[in-house]
């Protein structure tokens, strides 16, 4: 069975990669040759040679020289590929083996390669150069032939001007002995290979960017730098048969249209049933300032302009036949963008795009964080696949992904499969006015970008933190629900003078008991926000970076919003981004921290349990000398407030917070926008340093807390603090590094004090100054009491200190076996009130993975703590260090984890110098 491989010409483009400055794309189509018109399976390639086929088929290889790839050409039906590099070399690749390899190479020493062309079923490769010459290479021997087309022979003998580099070479579809040669200056030559002379010369006064043939070989089309398309009859070189300006405004007096931006590429594809397709990139009018890059599809009298998210690198049209002298019958367009790959369906009205099955985009990946989970529950992947396959894909083509060639044996690396997609931005309102935009000034690019994730595979609870200082908690459900906002409550509460706490100093208000059936008649929603302001002098106060949707939302099966937490602006100070995040389904708690402190949220009762600065976590045993941070410029108070004095005592604050309670409704209302449902909203107010207070947390009902101001930490001992380095030379970043940030969390059942004899729920906290602290958790009984009685949270002091920021914590039992955090099994949260699932929910108990024998025999545990510099093993409950290892002295650890391997438990570390090491 032979392989029929189609090719396309590619253009140069800038790449954001450090190793390559140019990138491009092309397509490889593959089908069995039993029937000439069976649908093809296709492969997609881009540079560095990276081949995509059907989902699961991916192949990657790289040139040894590291030079940029400027063009790729397939040897059709030979399983080979020719690549042209920016160092003026060409290489022949063998694709018929699992790992593609270079068979031959050829280097040009005196001329720069600008364009290559390999005709269908030909053994001659035409190489155009910057000097305007064309060299012919024998592909079989990969050597130069004696045939060279010189630029001065190709143009008019009377012309003395150089025509410029060769920008296009292609053969006549009906006569492979005729070549079209396009020069940059605007000259096109029809060259006869047999007679070694030019048959016709076509001259236009604008530079040429690309050329495309009509399949009959009687016409060709050129794209120019002034945004025009010229169609030429090959036997009428005097003037173009037709001149088109797709996006130009036609003057009423019949004059030439105003020039537009260059048309970088054009393709001319014919159909049996109707008008041909002209597909082009660029050519927009110069007055369209700020418009996104566009691909234009011209078919008959219709012109469709398709906007892209990123600049277009190249595109190619997928056709039903590889033969250039037959009707092309185009069915899709593959568009390579700077940061993405898009395939457009030409057969459907509106030209929808195909849903991309590949897990990651190419070039610069938009991935901001990754979490790898091994040994998932057996029912987890089928559940995710089930809801993911039924997701409504509005705007996508109904057809299968057209790039479907290859088999699993042709892949050279692991290929991931997308199971489910979740868009967190649907929780928030879109910015509609310029007045709303300044709230996201703390974010350079996308305000919805995900920064951290915490996922519990057993319970399927998911928690994500975004760069706009927001946290969203999701619960998995197989049923579609609709929620609506019923109640909005405001409550103010102040705590003052907490700089010197007594008896532990942790004063936390008792969380209010939530109403099981809130009624709008008992307390109507408030429409005003007394503490939220955007004052006339421009100072923002008590406003979040993003606005949560407050209208009824329909949530599809899958992950549905359970809770939204937002940090807000205070007195013109933006909230600090979240630096650490953890969720525990067994306890029903979410904890997050930043450079100011931490907050513990009960997502079952929708209350804030604990909100403390890092200083208060130490209590009276603070090992650091806290000095006031450098003062900021004075700000005018908003809302009639007066700034507090610059003293050690914190000033009173009046911060509010806004929230909403929602319940599921049995009647599902039609909501045309596919938005996720907001069930609850909590705002955490980061108070300014100028006003002399640390943070204010707001929850529904609103609670206002004023706690200690953040102060720079100076260690009392002489331990190495090189890890608290500033990654930037700016004064702002140095100022931020003076804070002690929360960097790591771990929920566990352990011994919180040296005198403990039984395991109790706890939360371990790691900071940027290398300190590990413990917080005890007193959980109410399971079942209905868990929803009514509050969780008691009490800090227990410092446990251990290391050099460098704490990155990871884990626990082992007395035998050295890994102890994951306690978790709860998944249940259907939207089960009917009289169903078996609802009865199971009522009687469910937290599932603890700690072995019961550990409690009965009072056996010890071991805590493994890893920082940027060190790793320690701590015996519990004695809290003695039984092992310490300095991981690196000249670098620092970027990522670390405690993993189970074949030999046993080990600590895996990835350092900034590129080294990966494991400790046992």
Distance between the termini: 53 Å
Specify the biggest β-sheet.
Answer: 6 strands, mixed
Count of separate DSSP helical elements: 7
Mean pLDDT: 73
Ranges with pLDDT <50 over ≥5 residues?
A: 1-42, 408-412, 485-532, 629-737, 842-858
List the strand order in the largest sheet.
28-29-30-35-42-43
Structural class: mainly beta
> Percent of residues in beta strands?
35-45%
Net shape = elongated
Helical fraction: under 10%
> How many extended strands?
56
Please compute the radius of gyration using only Cα atoms: 33 Å
Describe the structure.
This protein has 920 residues and is mainly beta. It has a domain at 422-501 and 531-605 and 647-716. It has seven helices and 56 strands. The strands form 15 sheets. A six-stranded mixed beta sheet has the order 28-29-30-35-42-43. The protein is elongated, with a radius of gyration of 33 Å. Mean pLDDT is 73; it is low at 1-42, 408-412, 485-532, 629-737 and 842-858. WD repeats lie at residues 201-242.
